[in-house]
């Protein structure tokens, strides 16, 4: 009986000890979970003053290089190609003869036309002499003259056909495609090769409605390409479309001299238009924007608190962005520490290292 009492007492004591330990642990956990009054916490931030600055107004847009001219070398007469002195990459000049079409039939036609002309000249002279000697009629002279003129026209046509047998380059440039070979029969108008002027290119850029009115014909621009780091090229506006597309963008073309042939048609480039120096442009650092430029807002310092303010932004100038509305010159915007802020948070300004 005494042993049983001791065992029961031990068990009860164990329960008391366990309960005490659990109670102490709960107090410790509850102490950790006590709500912190964040309204009293000062968030460390850095700020920048909203200011007006002079800026060089540049408009940089992506563009593509295209040939200023490209043309098909086409057959002017039909026949079998007897010679073709070009290959891919051949450099051609306007009017250069690069091949010929079989002229054997034209040579036969030329011989016949010359014989017909000689006979017509002889007949005309004979009829003229007879008329002047009162042995012929005026009508005979007119008929002979008509035949003579017809023979001359025929000879001119045959000579033209012989000239057309020479295949010529229509423009200065480089052969970029070849679609016929010696021995093939071609019809009039059939393409033989393509030649592209690579020494004079054009940059094609699409400009928004709000920017196109700031451009003008003959305006200069700087052209750069990511694949040609450190190099820049000059361009001049040669065309501004009077009609925008469905997105209110306007096609603008610039002439680009490429005498060294370093640039290639099809290259992606950037066109930088200098629109002149403007003053009094209100700006802030872009890092002050909490959600970028789509839904722009910033935190403004007011009585040592952060106050959320929606703003309107405009052009970007490197790390700065234009402010069109919502801020005044002299306002202070928070540029670091925004992630810890809500509107009304207390702040502590620190130096920007």
From TrEMBL:
Q: Where is each Multidrug resistance protein MdtA-like barrel-sandwich hybrid domain found?
A: 70-196
Please provide, in alphabetical order, the Gene Ontology terms of the cellular component aspect for this entry. Answer: efflux pump complex
Among InterPro entries, the record links this protein to: Beta-barrel_YknX (IPR058636), MdtA-like_BSH (IPR058625), RND_pump_MFP (IPR006143), YknX-like_C (IPR058637)
Q: What Pfam families is this protein classified in?
A: Beta-barrel_YknX, BSH_RND, YknX_C
Which molecular function terms from Gene Ontology are attached? efflux transmembrane transporter activity
The residues forming the signal peptide are none
| Domain YknX-like C-terminal permuted SH3-like: residue ranges | 281-348
Outline the extent of the YknX-like beta-barrel domain: 206-270
Keywords carried by this UniProt record? Coiled coil
Concerning SUPFAM superfamilies, the annotation shows: HlyD-like secretion proteins (SSF111369)
Q: Which superkingdom heads the taxonomic lineage of this protein's source?
A: Bacteria
Q: Does the keyword Electron transport apply?
A: no
**The keyword Ribosomal protein is annotated on this UniProt entry:** no
Show the coiled coil region(s): 103-161
What family does this chain come from, according to its entry?
Answer: Belongs to the membrane fusion protein (MFP) (TC 8.A.1) family.
Q: Name the PANTHER family on file.
A: HLYD FAMILY OF SECRETION PROTEINS, MULTIDRUG RESISTANCE PROTEIN MDTA
Report what the protein is called.
Efflux RND transporter periplasmic adaptor subunit
Species: Flavobacterium sufflavum
């Amino acid at each position: 009986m005494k042993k049983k009492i001791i065992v029961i007492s031990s068990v009860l004591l164990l329960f008391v000890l366990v309960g005490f330990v659990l109670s102490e642990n709960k107090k410790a956990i509850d102490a950790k979970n006590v709500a912190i009054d964040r309204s009293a916490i000062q968030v460390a931030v850095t700020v920048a003053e909203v200011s007006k600055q002079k800026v060089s107004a540049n408009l940089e847009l992506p563009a593509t290089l295209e040939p200023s001219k490209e043309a098909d070398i086409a057959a002017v007469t039909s026949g079998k190609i007897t010679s073709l002195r070009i290959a891919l990459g051949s450099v051609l000049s306007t009017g250069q003869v690069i091949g010929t079409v079989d002229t054997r039939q034209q040579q036969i036609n030329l011989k016949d036309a010359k014989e017909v002309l000689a006979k017509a000249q002889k007949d005309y002279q004979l009829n003229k002499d007879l008329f002047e000697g009162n042995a012929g009629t005026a009508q005979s002279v007119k008929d002979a003259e008509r035949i003579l003129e017809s023979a001359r026209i025929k000879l001119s046509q045959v000579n033209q056909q012989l000239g057309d047998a020479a295949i010529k380059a229509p423009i200065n440039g480089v052969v970029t495609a070849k679609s016929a070979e010696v021995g093939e029969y071609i019809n009039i108008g059939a393409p033989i090769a393509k030649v592209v002027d690579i020494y004079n290119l054009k940059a094609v850029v699409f400009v928004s409605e709000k920017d196109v009115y700031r451009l003008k014909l003959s305006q200069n621009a700087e052209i750069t390409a990511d694949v040609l780091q450190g190099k820049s090229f000059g361009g001049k506006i040669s065309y501004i479309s009077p009609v925008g597309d469905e997105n209110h963008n306007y096609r603008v073309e610039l002439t680009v001299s490429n005498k060294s042939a370093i640039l290639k048609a099809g290259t992606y480039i950037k066109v930088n238009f200098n629109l002149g120096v403007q003053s009094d442009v209100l700006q802030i650092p872009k890092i002050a924007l909490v959600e970028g430029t789509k839904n722009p807002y910033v935190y403004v310092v007011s009585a040592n608190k952060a106050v959320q303010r929606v703003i309107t932004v405009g052009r970007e100038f490197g790390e700065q962005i234009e402010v069109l509305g919502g801020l005044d010159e002299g306002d202070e915007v928070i540029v670091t520490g925004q992630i810890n802020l809500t509107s009304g948070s207390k702040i502590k300004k620190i130096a920007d290292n």
